[in-house]
């Protein structure tokens, strides 16, 4: 198959996601193209992915660059010239809806990932994004989401079951150059008595909640547990006083090598989010043989087998999080057992995801061939 991924924003997170899909399909032997911005983090992709950068867009939102209609036409021409069997829009951009309509008029089938089905009404562009999502859902041939919660939401909205698929969010945080370099990963894994929070510091991620939990952890010197927050952001907006003794901050952009070291050494990964759709960090933790603690928000609990691969606590409940951390951080045998179960979960779902996407792509590509055959006969 000739697959064309389209991601016109330069969002690092969205390119991590897209690179995971594109790299895997390229390794599986498909002809994979990426149409994106010249400002994108292209080091995420392996050389087998053919990259086209017809524009220099940076934003996915409703900004002035969305008015550059000549650039929009250039993107459409680039995609059509690739002559793909299908196009996968892997992340949001203001042009996606117009492009999908134009490409479908050319007989090209499209699939669109919706990372957030229903953003909060009070969020930045909440109402506009909800309306935009509805149009995307009506226009795309297929919708991909990453949680049964969101699949059911689409079904409740009247979307036909055959037009929507849910798979877990499984991409890692590393670039394409690191693929295949983990043959000795298991030998590098340790279970040191600290929990890792990884990623940019944003309000919805529950930073204040996590710091409060650290402050509540027992002070017994025999208890070795602590927490490391590794990521860039303004910590002052979440915590104004002195930091708890059991907290360590790495407030910077964490590059691949340091991130892998942190994931290899930590005892577990904690996602104290107070509002989220899903997170690939759960799969990343499992990949590195680490259990997780997540909160009961969005699709996060779907990714956890309670007590086996991790734990689910209530959001914005620091005492419950502190107790959970205390129960496991000084028990490396338990952490190792749960980490092995998490890695097994990852392997199973990774194979299932590849098979599901192959089936969807094949089915969509068949619709193009059928349409071309009918047109030639007509």
Overall description:
The protein has helices at 12-27, 69-82, 96-105, 126-139, 148-156, 185-188, 207-216, 256-265, 281-287, 318-328, 332-377, and strands spanning 2-7, 31-37, 50-55, 86-89, 110-113, 142-145, 164-166, 194-198, 226-230, 247-250, 268-271, 292-295, 310-313. By secondary structure, the protein is α/β, with parallel strands linked by helices. It has a 7-stranded parallel sheet with strand order 3-2-1-4-5-6-7, with helices on both faces. It has a 6-stranded parallel sheet with strand order 10-9-8-11-12-13, sandwiched between helices. Helix 7 packs across helix 10 (318-328) and helix 9 packs across helix 11. The radius of gyration is 22 Å and the shape is elongated.
């Amino acid at each position: 198959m000739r697959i064309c991924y389209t991601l016109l924003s330069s969002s690092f997170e969205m390119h991590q996601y897209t690179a995971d899909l594109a790299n895997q399909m390229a390794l599986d032997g498909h002809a994979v193209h990426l149409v994106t911005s010249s400002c994108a983090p292209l080091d995420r992709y392996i050389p087998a992915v053919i990259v086209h950068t017809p524009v220099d867009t940076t934003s996915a939102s409703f900004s002035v660059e969305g008015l550059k209609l000549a650039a929009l036409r250039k993107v459409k021409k680039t995609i059509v010239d690739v002559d793909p069997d299908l196009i996968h829009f892997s992340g949001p951009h203001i042009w996606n809806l117009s492009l999908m309509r134009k490409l479908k008029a050319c007989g090209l089938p499209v699939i669109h990932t919706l990372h957030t089905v229903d953003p909060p009404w009070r969020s930045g562009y909440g109402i506009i994004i909800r309306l935009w999502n509805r149009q995307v859902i009506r226009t795309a041939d297929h919708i991909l989401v990453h949680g049964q919660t969101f699949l059911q939401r689409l079904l409740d909205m009247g979307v036909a079951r055959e037009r929507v698929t849910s798979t877990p969010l499984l991409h890692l945080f590393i670039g394409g150059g690191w693929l295949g370099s983990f043959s000795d990963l298991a030998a590098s894994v340790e279970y040191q008595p600290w929990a890792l929070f990884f990623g940019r510091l944003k309000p919805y991620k529950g930073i204040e909640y996590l710091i409060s939990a650290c402050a509540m952890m027992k002070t017994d010197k025999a208890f070795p547990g602590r927490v490391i927050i590794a990521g860039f952001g303004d910590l002052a907006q979440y915590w104004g006083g002195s930091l708890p003794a059991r907290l360590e901050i790495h407030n910077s952009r964490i590059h691949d090598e340091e991130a892998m070291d942190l994931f290899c050494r930590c005892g577990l990964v904690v996602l104290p989010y107070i509002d989220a759709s899903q997170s690939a960090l759960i799969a990343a933790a499992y990949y590195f043989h680490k259990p997780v603690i997540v909160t009961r928000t969005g699709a996060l609990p779907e990714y956890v087998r309670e007590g086996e691969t991790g734990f689910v606590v209530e959001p914005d409940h620091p005492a419950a999080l502190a107790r959970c951390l205390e129960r496991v951080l000084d028990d490396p045998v338990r952490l190792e057992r749960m980490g092995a179960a998490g890695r097994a979960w990852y392997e199973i779902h990774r194979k299932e995801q590849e098979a599901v996407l192959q089936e969807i792509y094949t089915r969509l590509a068949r619709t193009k061939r059928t349409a071309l055959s009918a047109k030639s006969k007509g």
